[in-house]
Amino acid sequence: MEKRKDFLSYGKQSIDEEDIEAVVNTLRSPFLTQGPKVEEFEKRIADYVGAKYAVAFSNGTAALHGACYAAGIREGDEVITTSITFAATSNAVLYCGGTPVFADIDAAIYNIDPEEIKKKITTKTKAIIPVDFTGQPVDLDAIMSIAKEHNLIVIEDGAHSLGADYKGQKVGSQADMTMFSFHPVKPITTGEGGIITTNSEEHYESLKLFRNHGIQKTPYSLEQGDWYYEMTDLGYNYRMNDIQASLGLSQLNKLDGFIERRREIAALYNEKLADIPGIILPKQLEGTRSGWHLYMIQVDGRLVRKPRREVFDEMRALNIGVHVHYIPVYWHPYYQELGYKNGTCSNAEKFYKQALTLPIFPEMNTEDVEYVVSAINSIIHPC
Ligand SMILES: *Cc1c(COP(=O)(O)O)cnc(C)c1O
């Protein structure tokens, strides 16, 4: 096959003139940070997902850190999560002194398996952080009922799943807290940015305190005068600014269109890849509609002679930005040094060894999809 001229990355933001104008308007306004845009963005995200509250952060990782703080995670606490995720998910637990515990994935859906969560619960378990990997919502009803039975807090890592549906509702209102990321490859972008949505006033107050140095106006400080505030806990500067929020507000107007286009591209892939032997297609859990942040296939090692590494390199040589999401988190040297062992999650490791991320983003066209499909076919089935 002939190498395409431009590099087709696995994911890419869509920025138009409206977005640029929104940012420029904020630059011309009196507030670059802590102005009206952040609150407006929080309100719009909360309304969009159907949650009572939203607290915006400087990035998704900071937001996860905040959620772990609000959940009260500290030394001695165990938090169950998946290893097929970006390291930030379990790192947030470490930031608070807690211990991440990795439960295996469901081999067909690639998300954490509720039955595997049950096996990992101990008297030290404090929370569960399921991840809506690739934009595919987790089986939240099952996870929430396990959490209820064992009195655990559920923080849904929805970095991939803004705009996805779980049983007819948007992701973001059913877990105790849900995190969304606005990194440029994610469903919408603010450059860097993240948010937590929640229905709990208590979590909402903790999150606001944590992102702003642990500083608040207490009844005592109000007595002292208008300038007075008190730092009541050790927080951080994890605030989102108005420049980010104004971009987010403009992007949010286009989110449903982006998701619709991602669903069209995924359907095209599903249709065109279906007849190629040796490719395992992604499946969706019944009652959910993925937002298709990522489109991931597996190259079935039993049917395809060529190692995944070679398929990957040959796709890259054609200028197709394939990727692999993710290296099981506990394989990283940092985690190995903490004592995590290879082999902990066998489905996750098997998935990782065969996984390949194909390009998907709203501006991709049908010819791009067809090029990717022909490339895969010719690479794994050379004549
Ligand atoms: C992107 C991502 C994060 C972190 O978000 P940032 O905004 O990049 O800090 C956390 N979890 C998952 C699964 C992600 O993909």
Number of domains: 2
CATH-defined fold name of the largest domain: Aspartate Aminotransferase, domain 2
CATH superfamily of the largest domain, please? Type I PLP-dependent aspartate aminotransferase-like (Major domain)
Bound molecules: pyridoxal-5'-phosphate
Q: Count the helices. How many? A: 14
Mean pLDDT: 97
* Structural class assignment: alpha/beta
What is the straight-line distance between the termini?
A: 12 Å
How do the helices and strands follow one another from N- to C-terminus?
HHEHEHEHEHEEEEEHEHEHHEEEHHHEH
Number of strands: 15
C-alpha-based Rg, rounded: 22 Å
Top CATH class of the largest domain: Alpha Beta
Envelope shape:
globular
In the CATH classification, which architecture of the largest domain applies? 3-Layer(aba) Sandwich
List segments where confidence is low: pLDDT < 50 over at least 5 consecutive residues: none
